[in-house]
Amino acid sequence: MVFPRITYHALSHLNLRPTEIDLMVFGELLDLIEAWRQEQGISRPYRETSIDEIIPAGLG
């Protein structure tokens, strides 16, 4: 069992089963919770990027 608050978010908001939580890599679980928080407007992304910053202009 991981931390209680993380377990709560995973069970109630992400609709994961307890076995999925136990078997999931901890970093992936934190990423899912952070993505959910950003979708809900609870937190903001650390850095906003556009696709033009990721893919160089010559490849498009």
Task: Provide a descriptive summary of the structure in words.
This protein is an all-alpha fold and 60 residues long. It has one domain. It has four helices and no strands. It has helices spanning 4-13, 18-23, 26-40, 51-54. It is elongated.
Secondary-structure blueprint:
Blueprint: H1 4-13, H2 18-23, H3 26-40, H4 51-54
Helix pairs in contact: 1-3
Q: Report low-confidence residues grouped into runs of 5 or more.
A: none
How many strands in all?
Answer: 0
Average pLDDT over all residues: 86
Helix content: 55-70%
Radius of gyration: 16 Å
What is the H/E order?
HHHH
Measured by DSSP, the beta-strand proportion falls in under 5%
Major sheet details: none
Distance between the termini: 46 Å
By DSSP (H or I, 4+ residues per run), the number of helices equals 4
Structural class: mainly alpha
Number of domains: 1
Overall 3D shape: elongated
In short:
The chain is 58% helix and 0% strand. It has 4 helices and no strands.
Keywords:
60 residues; mainly alpha
